[in-house]
Write a structure and sequence with these properties.
By secondary structure, the protein is α+β, with helices and mostly antiparallel strands. It contains 11 helices and 6 strands.
Length: about 230
C-alpha cells in the first residue's frame, strides 16, 4: 500500500480517527501543500481507506471519513505510535524499527531473522515478549518476523524491495530476496525510539553492523556454531 509510505498519508488517516472532517480542516491539521494533501486524499479514497461525500448544503464542502479498513489501519498506527512514545520495550515491532534505523538496510529475511535472534540470545536485549524462535534445519526461525515486516510496510514504516537473482542454469528457478529499510516516516519513528533506549542497548544494536555486512554464509555458520541447540540435524 504505497500511499501509506508517502508524505501526509498516515497523518490524514490519524486526523480522521475520531470523527469525519472537511478537507479544509484536514489541511489545517496535517500541514503541507494543498496539492500534496489533495493527492493523498485521492489515493486514500482509491485504496478504499477513506470515503468522501459533498455536503448537501452550500458551500458543498467535501466531507471525509474513514472506512472500516481505514479505521483498522489508523487504530493500529496509533497503538504502535503510542507504544513507542511510552517506551514499551516489550513491543516486538519496536525492535524491527530500531534495528533498521541503526543498520540502514537489511538484505534478506534470513539475515533479518538471525540479527533479531542475536539481539535476544547473544546480546540479551528485548527478552520479554519477543519473537518466538524455533529450531529448524537451517537454524533459528521465527514465522512472526515476516508477518511483522508486512504489517510495518502496511503502516508505512518499512519499505520492502525485491532483488531477483537469475538461475545458473535452466533447471533452476529464480531466487527472490526481500530487502528491508525504513521509509521517511519510519526513520522519524526510529529516531524517537533511539532517544528512548539506554546506552547499552544502543551499543548492542551498533555491534550488529558487522554481522549485517558479513557474508550470509559466514553469518549462518557463526549463529549455527554458537547455537547448536537451534539447528535440527
Amino acid at each position: 500500500m504505497d500511499v501509506m509510505q508517502r508524505s501526509k498519508g498516515i497523518d490524514i488517516l490519524l486526523s480522521l480517527i475520531e470523527k469525519p472532517k472537511f478537507v479544509q480542516e484536514i489541511q489545517s491539521e496535517v500541514g503541507g501543500s494543498a496539492t500534496t494533501v489533495e493527492d493523498r486524499i485521492n489515493e486514500l479514497v482509491k485504496e478504499k481507506l477513506v470515503n468522501e461525500e459533498n455536503a448537501k448544503d452550500f458551500p458543498f464542502k467535501r466531507m471525509l471519513q474513514l472506512t472500516e479498513k481505514g479505521k483498522g489501519i489508523a487504530e493500529m498506527v496509533r497503538t504502535i505510535e503510542g507504544a513507542f512514545k511510552n517506551n514499551m520495550s516489550d513491543l516486538k515491532y519496536k525492535w524491527v524499527i530500531a534495528l533498521l534505523y541503526t543498520l540502514g538496510e537489511v538484505r534478506g529475511i534470513t539475515r533479518l531473522e538471525k540479527l533479531l535472534f542475536m539481539l535476544k540470545y547473544d546480546l540479551n536485549v528485548a527478552i520479554k515478549d519477543f519473537f518466538v524462535f524455533a529450531p529448524q534445519k537451517y537454524g533459528p526461525y521465527s514465522e512472526e518476523i515476516t508477518y511483522a515486516t508486512l504489517e510495518l510496510k502496511k503502516l508505512g514504516l518499512v519499505e520492502i524491495s525485491e532483488t531477483v537473482f537469475k538461475p545458473f542454469n535452466s533447471e533452476q528457478e529464480e531466487v527472490r530476496r526481500m530487502d528491508f529499510s525504513l521509509t521517511e516516516y519510519g526513520k522519524e519513528t526510529g529516531k524517537a525510539i533511539a532517544k528512548s533506549i539506554n546506552k547499552n542497548t544502543e551499543e548492542s544494536l551498533q555491534s550488529l553492523k558487522k554481522f549485517n555486512e558479513m557474508d550470509l554464509k559466514k553469518l549462518l555458520d557463526y549463529v549455527h556454531e554458537k547455537h547448536k541447540d537451534f539447528v535440527l540435524s
